[in-house]
Amino acid sequence: GSADRDLAGVLDQVRSSGPQAARDLMVDDFARYHAAMAVIATIVAAGLVLAGVVLWRRSHRLFAALFAFVAVLVAVVAVANTGTAADPEPALRAFFDGGW
Fold first, then answer.
1. Could you report the per-residue pLDDT of 7-47, keeping only the tens digit for each?
2. Residues 54-94: tens digit of each pLDDT
3. CB-facing half-sphere around the CA of 45: CA atoms within 13 A
4. Are 44 and 73 a contacting pair, CB within 8 Å?
5. What is the distance between the alpha carbons of residues 20 and 67, in angstroms, rounded to a whole number?
6. Cα 52 from chain centre
7. 86: Cβ–Cβ under 8 A, 6 or more apart, which residues?
8. Which backbone phi and psi does 82 adopt, to 5 degrees?
9. How far is 45 from 78, CA to CA, in rounded Å?
């Protein structure tokens, strides 16, 4: 309906050469978001490693291995967010173009 047309209009404005200040603000906010997510993911990964060590010492090896596996996945997310925070424009452009 009209909401779809409104959204399409906004996306066309973002994709086109709109006001540079607005685009710069969006890129800066996008970078800050991903930097914050990288910090959060790093803290979560460290917590999972710590919990895995505690579980390993208590002879809960299966759970310790599971925690280690999840910690690696979260660390990958942290690295991806760090990369996006360092160079946010291509990722933001891909987001608005409907791709990854």
1. 777 777 766 756 777 788 889 999 999 999 999 999 999 99
2. 999 999 999 999 999 999 999 999 999 999 999 999 999 88
3. 16
4. no
5. 45
6. 24
7. 31
8. -65, -45
9. 9
pTM for this model (two decimals) = 0.78
Report how far residue 92's alpha carbon sits from residue 15's, in angstroms, rounded to the nearest whole number.
10
Report CA 35 to chain centroid distance, whole Å.
8
Report the distance separating Cα 63 and Cα 97, nearest Å: 41
What is the amino acid identity at position 48? L
Burial class (CB in 10 A: 0-12, 13-18, 19+), 27: middle
| Tokens found for residue 38 | 């990288």
Written as six digits, the tokens of 21 are 């200040």
Gap between the Cα atoms of 97 and 93, Å rounded: 6
**The two three-digit tokens of residue 97, written as one number:** 């173009």
Residue 100 Cα distances to 71, 90, 91, 97, angstroms: 24, 9, 7, 9
